[in-house]
Amino acid sequence: MRIAQVSPLYEAVPPKLYGGTERVVAYLTDALVDLGHDVTLFASADAQTSAKLAAVRDQAIRLDPAPLKSDLAAHMSMLDAVRRRADEFDIIHFHTDILHFPFFEALAGKTLTTLHGRLDLKDLPPVYARWSRYPLVSISDDQRRPLPDASWMGTVHHGVPGQGYDLQPDSDGYLAFLGRISPEKRPDRAIAIATQLGRRLKMAAKIDAADAAYYREEIEPLIRDNPLVEFVGEISDQQKSAFLGGADALLFPIDWPEPFGLVMIESMACGTPVIAFKCGSVPEIVEDGVTGFVVDSLEAALDAVRRLPTLNRREIRRRFELRFSSMAMARRYTALYEELAASPRLEAPRALVM
Q1: Which of 115, 138, 274, 276 could form a disulfide with 282 if both were Cys (CB 3.0 to 4.6 A apart)?
Q2: Where are the beta strands (DSSP E) in 189-327?
Q3: d(CA 189, CA 233)
């Protein structure tokens, strides 16, 4: 099939450091190429891909040193580029949230939109009711709960390429936290778990400007003069395998309706179990007692750490390969593309006005 993948422009594809959506787009795009599809990726020029690259900005927005820039203008320019080439594709797969809805109504039946974020926001229901002809994909079943009547076509869990993550049969004896320093990610819980058990904790985390005060006021005092906690900052893809593979477990102590949580499957790819709080997608991703433990309290998390020796790291890797490889993700999306192509959801499209 001739497939367009339309990525957000905030990070490179894949991101150089932190970033979830663009990373998934990168993995999906390359896996679709491996399956024999003709794929064009609309992204910034610093993308690395085996597909055809349609570069719509010189570099990704977040690491662009220009002091003044407009993310809205950048995405509008990209959507115009996709519109002008729409006839070249059988499927146009958007990862740009709802931004494209007003511009592709005539072609909604040949599009697929994966929603990567939380959906429990006040202004969303009327938008999905107004543009109900767009086929939607959720990244977990739980993500759909705020919008049960939206035009869902399927759920496709994320996947990552297994060859980028090494199984490490023996860990180095520390607990790991990987992600963002923000209130909903609950790094304070990770610190409490490690501290109460007298275990080492390594924290590889990004601090957004919006969360700088939270880090300074709430988290830094817990780290300062705490010999058990090592804050290593933001790490690259190339560093993740060693960081996660060396851990006894990944702590995922979230306190919000996480739509997916890519770091959980990255940990599993290394054979490292996940101890995650029961929020959002967690019960769909972590197989309790197999790939980690799903907990609902600090006490349960402490007990889960004690039970880590009961888990088999090779079995965790095997379950990852079965459920969460990038190829498994690409095959699930291909089935949806074929369903769209075989059974158009709209009448013949009107001509687009350029």
Answers
A1: 276
A2: 200-206, 229-231, 247-252, 274-277, 292-295
A3: 18
